[in-house]
Backbone:
């Protein structure tokens, strides 16, 4: 079935063009990840990260950027400033419903305004984070001669380069969303994670060869990751089917309605968004604290803040769980409005058996959404934390934990669904379902 779906994909010109466009954009993204900012010594940079400067939160950021962070390339900041800007704007629309909230509900025009403000805020955050990262490299990398000629000119050029790189990545992501397949921003994050896998496997193999980690530990981790992958697929595709009944209507000699159907509610309606948002939000204070040299002074307030928000510690993981639960409910509330669903059902003559249309239906749907959302939030927490705990326990130097697994699997499934919609629309067999007609495009 998968082979048929792949062959059918090639037969559709539009889908073929979209896949090719996405591949070209990803290639550009990867090339830019290896172009260092002007004035940086590549040898000094390699020596600096080799002494352990790339651990903790910086290792996590490097994985999400596909190696661009440790390369100190034009794309070193990755897409994180854009994600942080999106979080801030979405929270503000909820905090100020009479102003920003109204704009967000104005349809396409309101969405364009929010998108424009998100872009502006992205550039501002990129400039701030770029300033911090540049200062960090100047201060911490001085003994390794990472920056041979530091100065005001280098600082300004580097900050401008990093902010421009982030703006370009944002544009690439938007182009993939509009002209490619899948969500562009999510695909870029997923691509960065996938690219980091070979280096992680190489480091793990070296430690196994030197007997610094045990084979049983790695085996247990691999088994857990396989089960986590299967669970992620099941939960991502899982639905709660709410039974519906449509009233029978007689128009002339024809009878409409009277049939039973269901309302599909995804168990994990928010997808990978809570994972990405929680990770991005927690990385912001750590990156800023480390960028101003706090990592080198663990006794200072900023130094304590740096290590408090570093991955692996109980404070970080606790805040990460809180962030996951919050953003799961927050984003689900944005995309699923029980009152709106109940109102649409009432207008179409549909109802839930045993539940009165209108307010009672909205309350019933909201109750179901709350239950399945809680199940989805618990699932996200378990999948994110369990592999991470095993990685820390067995000492595997591999940042591809549950967080990365959820993002990669979730993004690939969403992309697969979008490709399948193109196939089924033209009556071809898809990756998950069969088309109604086999043969040529009608």
Residues:
């Amino acid at each position: 079935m998968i082979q048929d779906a792949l062959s059918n994909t090639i037969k559709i010109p539009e889908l073929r063009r979209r896949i090719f466009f996405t591949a070209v954009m990803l290639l550009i993204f990867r090339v830019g990840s290896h172009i260092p900012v002007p004035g940086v010594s590549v040898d000094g940079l390699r020596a600096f990260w080799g002494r352990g400067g790339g651990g903790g939160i910086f290792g996590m950021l490097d994985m999400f950027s596909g190696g661009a962070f440790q390369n100190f390339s034009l794309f070193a900041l990755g897409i994180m400033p854009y994600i942080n800007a999106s979080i801030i704007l979405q929270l503000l629309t909820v905090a100020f419903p009479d102003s920003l909230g109204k704009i967000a509900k104005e349809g396409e025009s309101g969405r364009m305004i929010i998108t424009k403000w998100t872009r502006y805020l992205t550039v501002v955050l990129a400039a701030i984070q770029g300033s911090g990262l540049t200062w960090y490299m100047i201060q911490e990398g001085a003994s390794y001669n990472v920056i041979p000629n530091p100065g005001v000119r280098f600082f300004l050029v580097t900050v401008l380069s990093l902010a421009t790189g982030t703006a370009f990545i944002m544009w690439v992501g938007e182009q993939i969303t509009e002209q490619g397949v899948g969500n562009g921003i999510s695909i870029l994050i997923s691509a960065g994670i996938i690219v980091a896998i070979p280096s992680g496997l190489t480091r793990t193999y070296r430690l196994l060869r030197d007997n610094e980690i045990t084979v049983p530990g790695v085996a247990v981790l691999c088994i857990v990751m396989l089960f986590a992958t299967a669970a992620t697929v099941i939960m991502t595709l899982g639905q709660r089917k709410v039974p519906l009944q449509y009233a029978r209507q007689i128009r002339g000699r024809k009878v409409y309605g009277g049939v039973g159907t269901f309302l599909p509610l995804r168990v994990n309606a928010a997808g990978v968004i809570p994972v990405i948002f929680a990770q991005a939000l927690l990385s912001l204070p750590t990156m800023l604290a480390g960028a101003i040299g706090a990592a080198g002074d663990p006794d200072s307030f900023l130094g304590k803040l740096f290590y408090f928000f570093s991955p692996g510690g109980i404070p970080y993981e606790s805040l990460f769980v809180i962030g996951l639960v919050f953003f799961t409910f927050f984003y689900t509330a944005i995309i699923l409005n029980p009152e709106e669903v109940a109102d649409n059902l009432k207008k179409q003559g549909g109802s839930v058996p045993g539940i009165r249309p209108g307010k009672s239906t909205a309350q019933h749907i909201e109750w179901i959404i709350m239950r399945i959302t809680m199940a989805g939030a618990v699932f996200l927490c378990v999948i994110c934390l369990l592999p991470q705990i095993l990685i820390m326990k067995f000492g595997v130097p591999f940042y591809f934990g549950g967080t990365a697994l959820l993002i990669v699997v979730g993004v690939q499934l969403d992309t697969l669904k979008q490709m399948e919609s193109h196939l089924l629309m033209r009556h071809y067999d898809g990756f998950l379902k069969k088309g109604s007609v086999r043969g040529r495009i009608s």
